[in-house]
Specification:
By secondary structure, the protein is of the alpha+beta class. It is built from ten helices and 21 strands. The two termini are 34 Å apart. The structure holds flavin-adenine dinucleotide.
Length: 383
């Protein structure tokens, strides 16, 4: 089997790229997915779509992607079920938050600093301490990640892309073309994209390229929404305790981990723990959040909302996310006709519509004109 472009990974990034390439008229594309569509991070994500980033490139891609999500069905023909709920951010780190708000305002991203009255109008039960700041992004919300990823898959299939599930890539070699082997088949391709999430560095290492990727566990739990609890019908980031929440259906709320580097703070000076280097982690083994982490979430929520009397956890999970030392993705041509898109650092879902467009331009035209993607280049790291 010989393809023009082979994509490894049937998540939001791989499938958005397949969709965007097809839209540009590129033919003879296949996607190899070791499991099923959206079985990786794209199926476990909280799918929050917001623009609150201190990194200019990420904020811009988030802005373009959010506009895409708002018109997702018109754009692609299928619904991502995006709900615009607004986002409230609370933190002690007033200076960094205000710097980010100022940067975003220059990019025409709407932000409001909330005083006591405006916060109380949004949610009268949210306690804000004297030394904390609260800001509001009205356009933010969340989508349905499975519907989104499947939308890219369905629209791609309609344009002729072959999506092959249950095809685990076990080796890659460079001959006159790239030769990609799964346990039962062999594929040849002129151009190869590796968008395999947390497994990308292992796959790329077949070609003696060592990516600076670290895999960190990302704890999430689902809590029962108490009867008549009207708070948290929006997305909420509590950086004072380091958790986020968003509604899940009518009767639950998702609670997960958030790090300043995923939002308002640059990762300058951050040194990833070598114990989390990709080569030291067995990605096939799932783990669970510890009780102390969940207790910090529940105690944080109880202290934050006057109208919350108890927190009932209904389930939990702890997938890995793939981060880079600066918490920005790697999107690059790392060798002739070999493209890598990984290290999405816990914010890749929201970026997926535009990441796919970037990769489609990079793969088919070897350059991206509508945005400068240098900050995502592999060359920023000394390998
Ligand atoms: C708990 C959690 C919450 C998150 N919340 C948010 C959020 O609110 N907002 C946001 O923007 N982002 C969020 N993220 C991050 C976001 O989910 C990811 O950045 C995004 O889904 C990455 O998409 P991807 O396509 O790169 O990876 P994936 O969805 O992981 O896709 C990679 C695919 O490659 C396949 N694969 C792996 N190895 C092979 C192989 N050898 N052969 C063939 N196929 C292979 C995998 O099975 C997988 O399906 C969250 C992540 C987690 C884990």
């Amino acid at each position: 089997m010989d393809y023009n472009i082979l994509i490894i990974g049937g998540g939001a990034w791989g499938l958005s790229t397949a969709y965007n390439l097809s839209k540009k008229g590129v033919k003879n594309i296949a996607v190899l997915e070791k499991n099923y569509i959206a079985s990786g991070q794209s199926g476990h994500t909280s799918a929050i779509v917001r623009q609150f980033y201190s990194s200019e490139i990420t904020a811009k891609i988030a802005q373009l992607s959010l506009n895409f999500f708002k018109n997702f069905k018109n754009n692609i023909g299928y619904d991502a079920k995006f709900k615009q709920t607004g986002l409230i951010v609370v933190s002690y780190d007033k200076d960094s938050i205000m710097n980010t708000v100022n940067k975003l305002t220059k990019l025409d991203i709407q932000y409001h600093i909330l005083d006591k009255t405006s916060l109380s109008n949004l949610d009268p039960n949210l306690n804000l301490k004297e030394d904390e700041v609260a800001v509001y992004e009205p356009e933010a919300g969340y989508a349905d990640p499975i519907e989104t990823t499947w939308a890219f898959a369905k629209a791609s299939k309609e344009m002729g892309v072959k999506i092959l599930e249950g095809e685990k890539v076990v080796s890659i070699q460079k001959e006159d073309k790239y030769v990609v082997k799964t346990s039962t088949k062999e594929y040849k391709t002129s151009k190869l994209l590796i968008a395999a999430g947390i497994d990308s560095p292992k796959i790329v290492s077949n070609l003696n390229i060592n990516l600076p990727i670290y895999l960190i566990p990302f704890p999430v739990c689902y809590i029962k929404r108490p009867n008549n609890f009207e708070s948290l019908k929006y997305v909420f980031f509590d950086f004072s305790v380091s958790y986020y929440t968003r509604p899940e259906g009518e009767d639950q709320i998702v609670v997960g981990a958030v790090h300043p580097q995923m939002s308002y703070s640059s990762a300058e000076g951050y040194e990833p723990d070598e114990a989390f280097h990709w080569s030291k982690i067995n990605t096939e083994v799932a783990s669970r959040p510890d009780y102390e982490t969940l207790k910090a979430y529940t105690e944080g929520l109880l202290a934050r909302f006057n109208n919350l009397k108890d927190v009932k956890i209904v389930r939990d999970l702890m997938p890995y996310i793939d981060i880079t030392p600066d918490w920005e993705p790697i999107i690059d041509e790392v060798e002739e006709d070999l493209f890598v898109a990984c290290g999405s650092s816990g914010h890749g879902f929201k970026l997926s519509p535009i990441v796919g467009r970037i990769l489609a331009d990079l793969i088919s035209e070897k350059e991206v004109k509508f945005i400068d993607i240098n900050p995502y280049s592999i060359k920023r790291f000394k390998l």
